[in-house]
Amino acid sequence: MSEPSAVPVVEITRGAVVLAGRPILRDIDLRVAPGEVVALLGANGSGKSTLVKAAVGLLPLASGQVRLFDQPLEQFRAWSRLGYVPQRSTITQGVPATVGEVVSAGRLARRRPFRLPRAADRHAVREALETVGLADRVNQQVATLSGGQQQRVLMARTLAGEPDLLVLDEPNAGVDLISQQAIADTLAALARRGSTIVVVLHELGPFEPLIRRTVMLREGRICYDGPPSQLATSGSGEHGHGEHCEPVELPVRVPPMSGLIGEDR
Amino acid sequence: MLDILTSPFMVRALIAAAATGLAAPAVGTFLVQRRLSLMGDGIGHISVTGVALGLLTGTSPTLTAIVVAIVGAVSIELIRASGRASGDVALALIFYGGLAGGLMLVSIGGSGTATINSYLFGSLFSISATDVWVSLALATLVVGLCLALMPQLFSVSNDEDFARASGLPVRFYNVLISVLAAVSVSVAMRTVGLLLVSALLVIPVATAQQFSRGFRSTMLSAMVAGLIAAVAGVTTSAYVDVPPGSTIVLVALLGFAVTAPLGMVLQRRRLARVPFEMPAQPEEQEVEGHHRHQHGPGCGHVAIEHGDHVDYIHDGHRHAVHGGHYDEH
Predict the structure, then answer these.
(1) How many CA atoms lie within 13 A of B275 on its CB side?
(2) Nearest-CA distance from B122 to chain A in Å?
């Protein structure tokens, strides 16, 4: 599915992240090829949120290197190719904002300052809202939407930028089943069109059919990297990847809890 | 009776107040969004040192106030961006250092409390034609940049992480907001005075956001509210013997107090209506089995998001899963 010759979309080499003196990630080697759909799994505090934040440049690496689209992160300028969907957002805080205003912010990687939005911008915003099923909510205040709808707004904001790579941080955390399904369907459609997707998940849930590769984190290290079907048996060591993983403890069974000490928000 | 409103000093006062009333809430909207409502207050305190420096050195206090305010605002922003935990303590150090330093400089210079008072509490009826032109120019700059860069400034204030991942120069825009706040504080200095500056930055925004659903509409209606408060305040103080600065602020507060109950009702109604705002009247679908199946995506019943859960339209009423049974909503 991923040709080894293709230039990776995301490439992390010996990456390490230290937050407030505590090592959060160690020895991360991860290559994501164009068109791959990768799920990052792991318990609370295993470092999966930190990993995606480091990958999109929101957290500095203590050592190692991140490359996006074959550019070192420090020199990366093709921001319109990257679409980041944060886990929890501040979009409902402070001054009211409409769904349309928040989603329009997704176009800014493609819009220059002091320019009015063009037809292409308006079209992309409308299309993104249609994709997540919120086209009729354009003028509604974001704070009055349900948690699942707010998550879909975040999704639409990123889609409006028409990125080649999507990085999503727990898009189904605290989201009702209908919104989870809507988000999974949207991602499936993007994957079919060849987008590269890296998604942090607590459990595969409705995303299961589209995930071909899972990367498991445990205490800041990658302990399994392979197809989800072998995740359950990876502890036996037969497949050569998961020697650090306990066979009994399946990550997908971890109850979704938050606010634990050491949680990587 | 109207003569007083057309006298030159009154015209100057009205124009300067209107410029402040428009510019301050424009920046204030971004400050409120970023939960930095009291930043204007801090910049005001720092500006006292700027005014004192001007008085001491014989240069224009407005000019030195702008320079010192910008330096102070930028350092507040840089402190905020670097050491997040102790940010508010660092801000307090700068705020009160600025105020105390200014008062000290004034007493050293011997210019007396009367002069500094006119900056602390405003001196709208004694401003010159040059002051008016400077105020107008600065207010135009502030309003122009706030409107022209609204998408970028909105994105940075609304979700900083996302803005950074879109490649926006977040640090630059944050500093720009601080600089614009500093400039509008210097404009408002002559109108309401440095101690009340923050009121014009924040109160009109608080009034506007009770009614608006969007960011742009909040900003525009806050500017209208600021304009009305400024003009009404100056007009009132022309007829009644009260200082214009505090009158403007009290009029703005009165506007908030009067509209607050209305806004509360409106907001409650809006929240209550939301789950029922359907694209079309949901239609009951024929579903096999009666109360026997588990509602879920694709179960055949129309699903409606209702707050934190999902209702399913069933026989003309709503089912919400609750434990092992369905509540009717």
Answers:
(1) 17
(2) 29
C-beta of residue B26 within 8 angstroms of C-beta of residue B183: no
pLDDT in tens, B161-216: 999 999 999 999 999 999 999 999 988 888 899 988 889 999 999 999 999 999 99
**Which of B159, B209, B301, B329 is the mutation pick for testing A, counting most A CBs within 10 A?**
B159
Please report, to the nearest 10 degrees, the dihedral formed by the alpha carbons of residues B165, B169, B175, B180 taken in order.
Answer: -110
The answer to the question of residue A108 being in a domain is yes
- The residue among A93 and B288 whose pLDDT is bigger is A93
| Residue among A79, A89, A181 whose CB faces B167 most closely | A79
Residues 224 through 253 of chain A touching chain B, CB cutoff 8 Å: none
Q: Where in chain B is the domain with CATH 1.10.3470.10?
A: 3-197
Q: In this complex, is the C-beta atom of A256 within 8 Å of any C-beta atom belonging to chain B?
A: no
Which structural domain, as residue segments, surrounds residue A63?
10-253
For chain A, the domain total comes to 1
The answer, yes or no, to whether residue A122 has pLDDT greater than 50, is: yes
Tell me, yes or no, whether A100 lies in a domain. Answer: yes
Contact residues, chain B, for A178 at CB < 8 Å: 297, 303, 305, 310
* pLDDT for A251: 47
The model's confidence at residue A152, banded by pLDDT at 50, 70 and 90, is: very high
> Helix (H, G, I), strand (E, B), or coil: what is residue B293?
coil
Strands A221-226 and B325-328: unpaired
Q: Is residue A258 a part of any domain in this protein?
A: no
Whole-angstrom CA distances from B175 to A253, B95, B156 are 45, 17, 11
**Would an 8 Å CB–CB cutoff place A65 in contact with chain B?**
no
| The listed CATH number (1.10.3290.10, 1.40.20.10, 1.10.10.10, 1.10.3470.10) that belongs to domain B3-197 | 1.10.3470.10
